[in-house]
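Email to the structure team, subject: Redoxin domain-containing protein model.

Hi all, the expression group asked for a predicted structure before they design truncation constructs. Nothing fancy, just the tokens so they can compare against earlier work. One-line instruction: predict Redoxin domain-containing protein, return tokens.
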Amino acid sequence: MTTSQVTVRTLAALTLVVGFAAAARAQPAPVTVEWALKQTPKQPGVNVSTPPAAGCRIAPVLNPDPKAGGKSMGSLLKGPDDKPVRQFVSYDDKSFNIIVYYLDGVEAYREVYMPDPKEPFQFRWVGPNGTKWGLDRNRDGVIDEWAVISPEEVSQEVAAALAANDPKRLAALVVTRENLAGLGLPAADVNQALARASGVPKRLADTAAALKLSDKARWLHVEYGIPSVRPADAFNGREDYTAYKNGTVFVEDGGKGVPFQMGELVQIGRAWKLVDGPAPGAAVQQVNAGGAEAAPVPDEIRTLVEKLNDHDKTGSGLTSPQEIAKFNAVRAGILEEINSQLKDESKKETWIKMLLDSHAAAAEGDKAGNKHLVRIDQFKKAYSAPGANAAIASYAAFRLILAENAVAMANLPPNGQLGPIQDKWRESLEEFVKAYPQSTDAPEALWRLAMAHEHSGAKDGEAKARAAFEALAKGHANTAQGLKAAGALKRYDAEGKPLELVGTVLGTTQPFNAAQPGKVVVLYYWASWSQSLPEDAKKLQSLMKEYEGKGLAVVTVSVDHDPKVAAEAAKKVGLPGTHLFAEGGLDGSALAAAYGILAPPHAFVVGRDGKIVNRKAQVQTLEDDLKKLFSDK
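Reply from the structure team: attached below.
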């Protein structure tokens, strides 16, 4: 049995013991509905339910041990539908040692905080969120090692590490001497594998530099061949050496499909570990231990995939729209050849999506009705036929909408009128969500539709936006867009209700509640790239100078991705107040999602009673709000 297998079984036993058989003790603090709902997973990208507070209730978690006498050992938050939402269990009389999060009443994620400082914190994804089980040995909130992780989830972690150029995130996936020794591999094989593993940080840096993924890069798919096995008795070991020699990961970034290679993965207990690390391009071939080839890329398209990889290497450093369009036009041509040569229809979906992405990117550098738009429309119609792949049809339909709008915006009429373009944009999105309500792009389409209506300036714009947000929050509640839609609906109904926003102070781990009882609060969402930031900062400085002594507090929320960039920007423009920050940027930040912020800047004004009085304040006219509030004192 390997070390990782022992670790997993031990941790599982410990979790069970501390969760259900500990002696009853007092809770660290009373749990309220409001407090419980503000608790969010410490790890990013976890889908959990967070219903409105109205109708929620707290129930005790009783210790099932007969010796405990039915005493409480924690609290369970139940939603309006009586389904569990959060669970908090304490067994050390100091803090909550187990926190469980639910999605639609099903356990979806668990955090375990062991009281013994020698034990790691545990973060476990379960149910609809996957299989990952991470260990945080130094207790800094970052996973140091994975006790359980599937090959698919490894590829997702690698994609995220490449997008962020984060060597620490990748390091948690790399095989160790202890892992290999646990298999009983000969010392020479262990040393050879570790020598390869030592090059993983450089491979990450080189691949990140070559791919230049943005922070919006999205994992799409991974393809592995057949795993190879070296039986334990072949090397007098304790466990078989089971490995994927390579694989191809596909991500979508800026409308373009981007492949990269995984390198070798070896199975250690219930976790898959990296031996080599990532490399640019698709994996053309793999050779397993017995010399047999396992190819995720079919034979008939290998030469074309090599051609595509070579072409992709020429794409770095392109800046002008013309250069980018030309690059993608050539790329689309190669992918057209791949599509025509690929014999197995079941393997075409990923390649066709990459093809559609390339056509869409090439179309943006051309005029209305160009050949790339025509080709996307052909795919849409072909795959809309009965029995065809509906996923490709919807993918083509959405890329066609995006590309047509981009072309229209790049070729404005002489009068510069945007009205007809914006009308068509909204109409196209409405048609898409009606035709493909359950497609993977439906949440994004609904989000963009809601944004378009809210920003339209029409009398019924907000009402139509609300309808789109409601459809998104109801039909796609567990997506990032669904969570933000729920926040947008909360924003629409915010006036007269308490401000509910707790975050972390920028550059620290210090929690801060934006609600400041007894003070008038200006809550200002911003980003370093917002053009109005310098002028807004000057106005806020002026307001603080005049009203701080009377009880004004300014709380700002950065929706940047990089906290260092945010801190530098705030310092450069002299932005006053307490600055909050959460990982994820505008699209993924929990603070942005809390009120469904569409774009910075966005401001709220909160009265002394802690209730929001203006949910869509304008920085340059804030003084009108403040004069009224302070004159009412």
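The chain has a mean pLDDT of 87. The first helix runs from residue 3 to 20. Ping us if the truncation boundaries need rechecking.
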